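Handout, section 4.2: multi-component inputs.
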Amino acid sequence: MEEKNLICINCPLGCMLTVAMDGKKIVSVAGNTCRRGDTYARKELTNPTRIVTSTVRVLGGSESMVSVKTKEDIPKGKVLECVRALKDVVLPAPVKIGDVILEDAAGTGVSIVATKNVQ
Amino acid sequence: MNNQLSADIVIIGGGPAGLAAAVAAKKNGIDRILILERDRELGGILNQCIHNGFGLHTFKEELTGPEYAARFIGQILELNIAYKLNTMVMDISRDKVVTAMNREEGLFEVRAGAVILAMGCRERPRGALNIPGFRPAGIFSAGTAQRLVNMEGYLPGREVVILGSGDIGLIMARRMTLEGAKVKVVAELMPYSGGLKRNIVQCLDDYGIPLKLSHTVVDIKGKERLEGITLAEVDGRGKPIPGTEEFYSCDTLLLSVGLIPENELSAGMGVELNPVTSGPRVNESLETNIEGVFACGNVLHVHDLVDFVSEEAAAAGKNAAAYVRAAKETAGRAAERASFPAVRLTVGTGVRYTVPETICAERMDEHQTVRFRVGGVYKNCYVSVYFDGERISRRKKAVVAPGEMEEIMLTKKQLMEYPDLKEINVRIEEA
Ligand SMILES: Cc1cc2nc3c(=O)[nH]c(=O)nc-3n(C[C@H](O)[C@H](O)[C@H](O)COP(=O)(O)OP(=O)(O)OC[C@H]3O[C@@H](n4cnc5c(N)ncnc54)[C@H](O)[C@@H]3O)c2cc1C
Ligand code: SF4
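Output:
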C-alpha cells in the first residue's frame, strides 16, 4: 500500500490530507476537516481540476477591467488555454456579477462569468 | 468649519472589516452609522483580489474577492447604511471627533458616539529591506503589481523574481504566469513560507515555479531598468552564506515581505499599540484603551483569511452598538467598568501575541474567540491554555505555522469558575 500526501485546496484552511492507495485505487483519506477534503483527494489523484480567475477589458465603464472566473472548475490542463481565450475579449459597460462573458471556454463546456459590477 | 455632523457610530474604512462592523451594528439596533472610505468604491483590498477562495466560512460557498465584497456592499445598501466615498479621514480626537476631507465637502467634522477603526494594512516598504545596490525601475511591491495587473490591465514585466512568500506574492506568481510572464523563482528569507499552504500548491507547484527557502536577494543589477538579481542562501541567523550566490536575469522584482497595520490615526488619537502586531491593544469587546473606540480587521492584526476579518468585525460592530446603547442609558459607563476586574492574556512558548489582550468575565459573551499567531513551525504539538498556572485545556495540532492564524475558544462558564483569576496564558507544548 502506498501513501500520498496532499493539501486540500478547496478552502483556505488547506487541510493536510493523507491518502492510502492500493495501485490506482484509493483506500482511505484522512486529515480532512470536512467532506470536501475527501472528495478533493479522490479527484485530485484521478482528475485534477481548477477554477480559473482573470480579468477582461471593459469599454466605456467606470473601470477599465472587470474580474471574471470559470463558473465551475475545469481540467487543470486546460487552464492556460482558457486564460488565452480571454485575452482578446472586450466588453461594453455595464457588466453585472454573473454575466456570461464567454461560453464553452477552451472546449470545456464551462462558461466564464463576471465577478464584479462595472457601471 | 461650520460643518459638524454627528453619528452614533463612525467607521473608518469601508473594506470587509468596516462593512461587516456596520452591518452588525445596524442589526443590533443602531441607525445612525457612517462609513468613511478614502477609495472610490467600498470593498477595500478585496477589489484587487480577483482570485477565488473567499467566503467558505461566511457564505458556505467559495467566492472571488470582488464577489465577497459585493455580498457585504449589498447588505449595506439594503440596510440603508450611510457611507461617504473618496473621503480621507485625517484625524480623530480623543473625545471622538473625526476630521475628514473630500472634494465636495472640503474639510468637515463628525462627532461620534463610538468609533470603529477598520483602516486595514499596507505593505512593508522596500526601504526597510536593506538590499544593497541601486534602485532601478522594475521593483514593485506585490500589492502594487496586483493592482496594476488586475485593475489597470497592465503587466509590469516579462521575467519576474519574487522576494518573500507572503500570500500576495504567491498569488501574483500565478497571475503573472497566466498573463504570459516567466516567474523564475520565489525566494523566502525564512526556512518556512509565510503564505497559506494552498497558495503554495495552487500558485507555485501547479506551474513548476521553484520556492527557495532560506534565500535572499544580495545584489541588484541595472541602473535605469532592472537587469537581474543575485540570490544567496542564508544561515540560521539570516546572514548570506558566501559561495551560494546565484544570478537570475529579470526585468521585474516583486517584494512580498509582509503587511503592517495602518495605525497612524490610532496612534495620533492616543490608542495604545501592541509592538508585536503593530495594532491596538484591545479587550474582549475589541475596544481599545480609549473607551468607545473599537478596532477590527487588518488594522488590529494582519489576517490571512477575510472570513475571520468579517467575523471579528461583526463582533466589534455588535460591541460598539452595545456601548452606544449603554452610554445613552447611563450617562457614562466609567463607574460600571471600573468595578469589573479584567484578566490578562499572556503568551508562553511559541505564541507571539493574542487578540484580545484582556478579558472581563462579566462583560464577555458566552463564547470568546482568542486569535493568535505562533512564532515558528511546530509539528504534532498542543495548544495549551493555563489559568493562573493550571492547565485547563489543551488541543492537539498536527502542525501550526506563522503563516496561519490560530484560535482558541474560552467560555464564560470557564472563567466564572475561577473568580480570582488574574492571568490566562496561551502556549505551544511539544507532544
Ligand atoms: C495589497 C494587499 C493584497 C492582499 N491580497 C490578499 C489576497 O490575495 N487574499 C487574501 O485572502 N487576503 C489578501 N489580503 C489581506 C486582506 O487585506 C484581508 O483579508 C482583508 O481585506 C482585510 O480587510 P480590512 O477591511 O481589515 O482591510 P482593507 O481591505 O485593507 O480595508 C481597509 C479600508 O480602509 C480604508 N482606509 C484606510 N485608511 C483610511 C483613512 N484614513 N480614511 C478613509 N479610509 C481609509 C482603505 O481605503 C480600505 O478600503 C491582502 C492585503 C493587502 C494589503
Ligand atoms: S477538508 Fe474541508 S475544511 Fe479542510 S481545506 Fe478542504 S474544504 Fe477546507
